[in-house]
Amino acid sequence: MNTQRTIFQPARETLIVRIRPMLVRDVLAVMVTENSSFEFPWTEGDFVSHIDDRDSVSYVAESSAAGGAGCAVGYMVYHVAPRRIELLNLAVHPQWRRRGVGTQLLATLAGQVVRHPGPGLGQRQSARAYVRESNLPAQLFLRSQGWRCDKILRGYYDDSSEDAYRMVLRPWRQEDAPRRHREHGGGGEYV
Ligand SMILES: CC(C)(COP(=O)(O)OP(=O)(O)OC[C@H]1O[C@@H](n2cnc3c(N)ncnc32)[C@H](O)[C@@H]1OP(=O)(O)O)[C@@H](O)C(=O)NCCC(=O)NCCS
User: Fold this and answer.
1) 191, 185, 189, 153: which is closest to 169 by C-alpha?
2) Which of 32, 72, 133, 156 could form an S-S bond across to 164 if both were Cys, CB 3.0 to 4.6 Å?
3) Residue 121 pLDDT > 80, yes or no?
4) 116's torsion region: left (phi>0), alpha (psi -120 to 50) or beta?
5) Is there a contact between 12 and 103 (Cβ–Cβ < 8 Å)?
6) Ligand 1 binding site (Cβ under 6 Å of any ligand atom)
7) How far apart are CA 190 and CA 181, in angstroms?
8) Residues 50 and 56 sit within 8 Å (Cβ to Cβ)
């Protein structure tokens, strides 16, 4: 019997959350998580403008276990473009990470990505996200949810010289396995 997992990695219980649209009154709680999650955080105004934008979708994940009914433990913002969904922001409060909250948020987005989009609101064929090369936890998280890196964008950010990993989700495409990077003279496996 392999006892290593029970000794060194005690299982964390999934925190079941309710996912609902973000409201302006959520933004203060969201900012606490935002400021503790990113070196270059969004402002309150960034969140409010996405709540107001009819092409953007903003959700919070709330749990009464986090103190007080309706307390937001995580959130996600994405933009719905004609052909794809672009994930713009997603974070979970540090206290509630590795409890499946990010997974539940992304499942909401993944449910909107379909092979043959019909008239359904928001349905698109793929989703994309741009992740900093230094943000290994986010890369591993997205990989665990079936996202794959299909391109590295050199010097993508204005605020640093970091590259971005473009991560893509096509849940209907079984052959979407890790691929070899050939752009910019690259040749190594990177996902
Ligand atoms: C990335 C983030 C959203 C993940 O949220 P989360 O609620 O902790 O994620 P989950 O509990 O659903 O994790 C699902 C799986 O992703 C992987 N994963 C998540 N965080 C990880 C980490 N820090 N290191 C390695 N793997 C990780 C694991 O496989 C995990 O499954 P496991 O816990 O059973 O091993 C969270 O760490 C966060 O808010 N980070 C700061 C903000 C950020 O970088 N956002 C970009 C998101 S694309």
Assistant:
1) 191
2) 156
3) no
4) beta
5) no
6) 37, 90-92, 97-103, 129, 131, 135, 137-138, 140-142, 144
7) 7
8) yes
**3-class DSSP state for residue 62?**
strand
Average pLDDT over residues 152-176: 87
CA of 67 to the centre of ligand 1 (A): 22
pLDDT digits (tens, 9 = 90+) for 37-81: 999 999 999 999 999 999 999 999 999 888 765 689 999 999 998
- Which CATH number goes with the domain that contains 61? 3.40.630.30
> Whose C-alpha lies nearest to ligand 1, atom 46?
138
The verdict on 68 and 134 lying in the same domain is no
Q: Which among 170, 181, 114 has a CA at the least distance from the CA of 145?
A: 170
Q: Tell me whether residue 39 is in a domain.
A: yes
Q: Residue 68 burial by CB count (10 A; 0-12/13-18/19+): exposed, middle or buried?
A: exposed
Atom of ligand 1 nearest to the CA of 104: 12
Q: Which atom of ligand 1 is nearest to the CA of 97?
A: 8
